Amino acid sequence: MPHETPQSAAETAVEIKMGRPRCFCEDAALEKAMRVFWEKGYEGATLADLTTAMGINRSSMYATFGDKQSLFRRALALYFEGPMSYIPKALAKPTAREVIDALLEGSMDLLSDSANPRGCLSVQGALATGTEAAEMKQAMIDLRRQGESLLAERFQRAHDEGDLPAHLAPADFARYISTILTGIGVQAANGSTPAELQRIVRIAKQSLPL
């Protein structure tokens, strides 16, 4: 076994004194951060909550993800790519009614899953925030508006194809469906059971004007 050189020995001593950088999976750490934000909201999630769940120290968090706002933005993007991936699939359905049914069912499945935190991250993540979190609250408002805009575009296409009743304005109808989906998220956050959410979805479907 070769002898350690004085230089490598010194480097080893420095590493022992300062602590070796902790290796971690960035994707797994981001998912854990997403779930902390999902459960506690942006302002409620402390740096200690986040770093403990992610299994890293603050220096590693800042070096990899940036500040808390940057981490939240990435967590929110992951939330839309993962748990809310049912939305683009729903928008691709061939009829407006199938789009709505898929959105309602997808929302109910997500929100009634006991493995997930209660409610919807995009709704409750920035509720009851102070002025310091106003930027994050606005970011989520913008994302929800973007989703509503995509739904309005899909309904406009349905309207043009004769698949949507002529008296329904696509933008207003998209706002109506978005309101139902947001309401289901609030009910889930309030502790509604899966059976109760299912009944809400059933009534919503029965009330649709198409």
UniProtKB/TrEMBL annotation:
PANTHER family: HTH-TYPE TRANSCRIPTIONAL REGULATOR YJDC, TRANSCRIPTIONAL REGULATORY PROTEIN. InterPro entries: Homeodomain-like_sf, HTH_TetR, Tet_transcr_reg_TetR-rel_C_sf, TetR_C. Residues 23-83 form the HTH tetR-type domain. GO terms for molecular function: DNA binding. Keywords: DNA-binding, Transcription, Transcription regulation. SUPFAM superfamilies: Homeodomain-like, Tetracyclin repressor-like, C-terminal domain. It comes from the Bacteria. This is Transcriptional regulator, TetR family. Residues 46-65 bind DNA.
